[in-house]
Structures are given as structure tokens and as C-alpha cells.
Amino acid sequence: KRRTSYGIKMNRDHLMLISEENRAIHSFIRSWKPSLIIDVHNYPPKRKYLEEKNYVFYHDVLVDTASNLAIQKRLDQDKLKSLIQDIQSDLNQFNYSCERYALIDDEGRVRHSTHDIIDARNFLSLRYNTFTILLEAREPLLEEGKNRRDRTISAQYEALLSILKWATRNTDFLLENSNTLTYKKRDLIPIRFKYALSEQPFRVNFINTITKKTEEVTLPKYESDIRATKHIRLPSAYAVPADKNSIIEFLHNHGFTSERIEDSSKLKLQAVQRYLILSLDPPKVEGRAAKNVVMITDDEEDLSNYEIFSVNQEGGHSLALLLEPQSEYGLHKYKDLNLTLEPGLEYPY
To answer: Which has the minimum average pLDDT: 1-15, 52-66, 243-257?
Structure first.
């Protein structure tokens, strides 16, 4: 549990660019514009549900790719399976094992890596239209000693080489539309999602901690995929009130450009709308988004006190996930950004 909380905190720090390290990473990616990002970590082989049944993960590496449906560069299930099979084939000669990354909760429900954009793999891909791969190596247990640590390092190294080999064979995919905007005004952008329960159970091998043998385990609660439950039509731009300094600074820190309009009466504006929140179901857990947000729109003509963020910029469509009040990932989740989402109040966009 402590590790899970730590992981959430670290991911949030990544999104908020709190540390100099995270700011440097994003600045480097913006300037270099890579076609592939490999997010490298270690994973703990123990899970509470598995430990109760005397099982642990034994795979040397686990692999996944970006899963948020608003991301443009994603692999479908067949292509992801092919990527993992390529890595497995390369690792077999070293007797290393590889599978798709999986999360197993206390009730035995299986999901693959999160679609939340606080996860670096998803947000970097969403923001910069860059393909990302998650590479997790098995974290050695304390009692396993140096040999296990050496194996972990070697397996992760060989898996990294395998991914680079895959990249050289798939340069057309990695470079396709890398410098173009494929979302435009009025396009539908998914901003809320739901896990889809698979008709097939999750089957994977684990080590039995008592017999020390490998056993295939079947877990019936397998949420193998996600589907969008809410879309919005992308506007031309989002207008942030000038006094929302924390929001403006957040967006500027992530490289979004904006402009101030001194005299909006000279503009030929189309429909300019702001939101009035009518009702919502508040989150039961801090840091989660409100559900069932009901709102109406009201006209706004004077934009002289707003900072205008056009969606016609690199990753501009991701502004919808950050700023829409109905978004599952909206910045209103973070209290220190001073963004209020309450019934009866205008939401400032």
C-alpha cells in the first residue's frame, strides 16, 4: 500500500513538474522531439492478492504501451501482441521471460497499465504525439541476493535492445505524422473511460512460493481493455481567466503557448461560451474527478481578461483532457491549482 501511494505521488509530481528533474525531462523532450520514449522502471513481484494464494510474479520483464484513447500514436491489440512476441523471441535465447504488464488488485481483478495521464507514459505520448513503451524489470527480493540482481539488470538490458530492434523495423510507424496535427476543431475527443470486462479469463504463469514451481493461474475478473464513455467536440481554443495564475503557469510549464487579447471587440469571434455547473457527484476519494457533471453554457464576449490557449499547437487536443469540467483527468482534481468545480458556480473556461 505504501508503495502504491508513493507511485501515485511520483506520477502526480511528474504531471505537476514539481521537481527540477521532471522539468528538465519535459524541456528536453520538447526541444529534441524524439519519435520513441522508453519508460524504464522496476516492478515488485509481490501483490497482496497473489501472496494470499502463495504466488508471485516471476517474469524478468513486463512490457506495455500507452493506453489512453485520446493518444494518437497507439498500437492496437494485435500489434501490441506482436511487439511483445518479438521481445519474447529475443529473450528466449537468454532464458529470460517477458509478458504484458498487469495490475492485480486485492479482489483479484486484472487490468493492464493505467490510462490515467498522471502516468508519464500516457502524458508524454498525449502531449508530444510520441510513441511510448513501458519496460518494467522484476525487482529483486531482499532474500534473492546478487545473482537475481544481475539477472534483472541483464534481462532489462536485453529487452531494451530488443525494443530498439523493433523500432528500426517500424520507423514508418514511429515517424508517421510526427510533425503534423491530426486533431482539429470539432473533432471528437474522448475525456472519460471505463474498463471493459473480457469474456476470456486472464491466464498467466506465476511461481508458487511453497512448491517453488511455475503454475498457470486463471483469474476470471479480467478487464482487458477500455472504452470511451464521454466525448467532447474540440473547440478552437480554451480561455483561462488571467487571475488563474496557477493554471496558466502549469500550462506554460508544459510548453503550451498562449496569447492575451487586449481588445476583443476587434475580433471576429464565433461562439464563445463559458460553463455553468448545475450538479455533480463529488469524488469519494481525494484526487479523483467528479462524476456526472451536468452543466449549461453561457455566452461570453469580452476576452480581454483571459489567456487564450489555441488547440492548433502540438498536443493541443490534450487541453481538452486537462481543462474540460467533465474530464476524468481535469486539473480541478488538484487543490493546489485553485480551480473550483462546484454546483451553481461558473467554471472559468
So the answer is: 1-15
